[in-house]
Every structure is written in structure tokens, then in C-alpha cells.
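User: Just a sanity check before I run the rest of the batch. Below are the C-alpha cells for the first item. I only need the designed sequence back.
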């Protein structure tokens, strides 16, 4: 920092050094993670509030770094997006999830969708539809057993573009959910143009739904909006019986959260389904 002047010096802290080091380490190792087989996919069930059946399993990416241990997707997905690595990584997740759902079917598990999170970068790729079609063909999974979760903010970045991409996905029979719904400023006017199946209420509203009248109002408004547009509504981050009762009384269709299951490795899903049927 010597010779760079006082103004630069004041920004310099050991904490920043550590962050920059970690970032560099993450970025270098993220490039090798796919080849080194360090990723795996966990699955978290979506539960029908009325029938209690499992409608889908959401694929959530996990990175087992050889030195740092388990790295959270909240930490490495943004890095993957900045570096463009999200494109090969996202395709890998999609392929793994479709292959896994096909395997569950051949094991005799009940039909359910597999839901894959789609990054905004993937959503903007010109060859998105071709990539997905190829994965479905390669893995032999029916399109109606695949669901894509796309965040409201990604869709709202360019609503006109989103309409055409969502239409093309709908046309091949894929189920679409708007993820983190309530955080991205959709109006009813926009919503009715989007060919989507489900609104997913963000867990930030679900958390305090019993104690915050604002969160309760937002949650019931989203459910009412979904119902009036003939969309399914799911709530994420459901952790307590109290939250479940609130959602059930207000006619939310599906729920997902630690109350039912934390995300689990694929190998535990068959056992979970058996346990769940006995409950
Ligand atoms: P998301 O799609 O909104 O996923 C929900 C997050 O909430 C997951 O965190 C999940 O493990 C967590 N969660 C589930 N139930 C509960 C609950 O009852 N309480 C609380 N507090 N949390 C709960 P996770 O797995 O760490 O993923 C974080 C985010 O990383 C995801 O948010 C998603 O945006 C992104 N992500 C994960 N996997 C992928 C992927 O394959 N592709 C892309 N593009 N993004 C991914
Ligand atoms: Ca999601
Ligand atoms: Ca969320
Ligand atoms: Ca049980």
C-alpha cells in the first residue's frame, strides 16, 4: 500500500485480505469441481397440504470442497454466475436430477416431479430449450416430470423476453414455478401473461407468518392471487406446525420445509417416502 496514498490505505483490512483469499481459492477450485466430481445433489420434498402426497423433489446443489468442506450454494452460486461456470454446472444439475428421477421410477417409487433451480444466466441462454430437450431425451424422463424454478426477479428483469421463454418451456410440457415469489414486484397484469403453473412464496414471508400481520397479509394475498389466476401456490421454509396450520387454513396448496424434511441425499429418498406413507 506504500506510495498508493492514504485514501487507498484506509480500505485495507486483514478481513478483506481473508475474503479475497477465500474468493480466489473458491474461484480456482470451482473451475475443477465438476471434473473432480465434488458436486452432489440433495433433494427436498414438496408436500400436498390436503392429500399429504409428495408432488415433487427439489434438487439443491451441494459442493464438497476437499479442504473447505461443505460450501453453501449461497456462497458459490453467485461466484459460478460471475465466472460463467453456472452454465456447465447448471446443466450438470439438470442432467443428474432427471437421471435420478428416472431411477426412482424404475425402483417403483411413486411418480413425482423433480424440480431444478434455473439461474438467470441459464434463462438467458439462446440454446436453453435445446439443452433441456437434449437432457430429457438422453435421460428418458417425461417432460411433465420435470419442473423448473425460476425466480420472480429473473423473470421481471425482462418480462417480454420471459413470456416467450416460458411459453416455449410450457409448450414441451415442463412445469414452471416462480421462485422467491413476493420479493420481485410482479403485478397481476404481468402475472397473467406468464405461462407458469405455480407461485412459490418466499420463506422470508413464511417465517413470521404467525406473528407479523404484514407477512400474514402478504402470504394470504399471494394465495388469493394464485387462486384467482388458477395457479398452484406453495410455501417454502415451513418449519413449524403453527405455520402449517396458517397456510392450510388459508388454502395454500403445497408446503416445503424442515417440518417435513431437510434436503437429503438421493439414496435416502426411498426410505423417506416409506416413512412418510406410514405417518
Ligand atoms: P432456494 O431455491 O430458495 O431454496 C430454498 C433454500 O432454503 C435451500 O437452501 C433450502 O435448503 C433452504 N430450506 C429448505 N427448507 C427450509 C426451512 O424450513 N427453513 C429454512 N430456514 N431454510 C430452508 P440451499 O440449499 O442452501 O440453497 C440456497 C439457494 O441456492 C437456493 O435458494 C437457490 O437459489 C440456490 N441453489 C441451490 N441449488 C441450486 C442449483 O442447482 N442451481 C441454481 N441456479 N441455484 C441453486
Ligand atoms: Ca428453489
Ligand atoms: Ca427462496
Ligand atoms: Ca415417520
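Assistant: Here's the designed sequence for the first item:
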Amino acid at each position: 500500500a506504500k506510495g498508493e496514498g492514504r485514501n487507498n490505505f484506509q480500505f485495507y483490512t486483514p478481513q478483506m485480505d481473508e475474503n479475497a483469499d477465500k474468493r480466489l481459492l473458491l474461484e480456482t477450485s470451482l473451475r475443477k469441481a465438476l471434473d473432480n466430481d465434488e458436486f452432489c445433489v440433495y433433494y427436498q420434498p414438496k408436500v400436498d397440504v390436503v392429500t399429504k402426497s409428495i408432488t415433487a423433489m427439489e434438487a439443491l446443489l451441494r459442493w464438497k470442497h476437499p479442504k473447505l468442506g461443505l460450501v453453501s450454494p449461497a456462497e458459490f452460486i453467485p461466484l459460478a454466475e460471475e465466472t460463467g461456470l453456472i452454465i456447465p454446472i447448471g446443466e450438470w444439475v439438470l442432467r443428474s436430477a432427471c437421471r435420478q428421477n428416472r431411477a426412482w421410477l424404475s425402483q417403483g417409487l411413486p411418480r413425482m416431479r423433480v424440480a431444478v433451480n434455473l439461474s438467470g444466466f441459464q434463462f438467458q441462454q439462446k440454446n436453453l430449450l435445446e439443452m433441456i430437450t437434449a437432457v430429457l431425451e438422453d435421460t428418458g424422463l417425461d417432460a411433465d416430470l420435470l419442473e423448473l424454478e425460476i425466480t420472480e426477479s429473473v423473470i421481471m428483469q425482462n418480462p417480454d423476453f420471459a413470456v416467450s421463454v416460458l411459453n416455449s418451456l410450457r409448450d414441451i410440457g415442463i412445469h414452471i414455478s416462480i421462485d422467491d415469489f413476493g420479493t420481485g414486484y410482479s403485478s397481476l397484469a404481468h402475472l397473467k401473461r406468464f405461462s407458469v403453473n405455480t407461485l412459490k412464496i418466499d420463506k422470508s414471508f413464511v417465517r413470521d407468518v404467525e406473528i407479523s400481520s404484514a407477512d400474514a397479509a402478504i402470504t394470504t394475498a399471494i394465495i388469493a392471487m394464485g387462486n384467482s389466476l388458477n395457479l398452484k401456490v406453495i410455501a417454502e421454509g415451513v418449519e413449524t406446525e403453527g405455520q402449517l396450520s396458517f397456510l392450510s387454513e388459508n388454502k395454500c396448496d403445497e408446503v416445503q420445509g424442515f417440518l417435513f424434511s431437510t434436503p437429503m441425499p438421493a439414496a435416502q429418498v426411498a426410505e423417506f417416502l416409506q416413512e412418510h406413507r406410514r405417518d
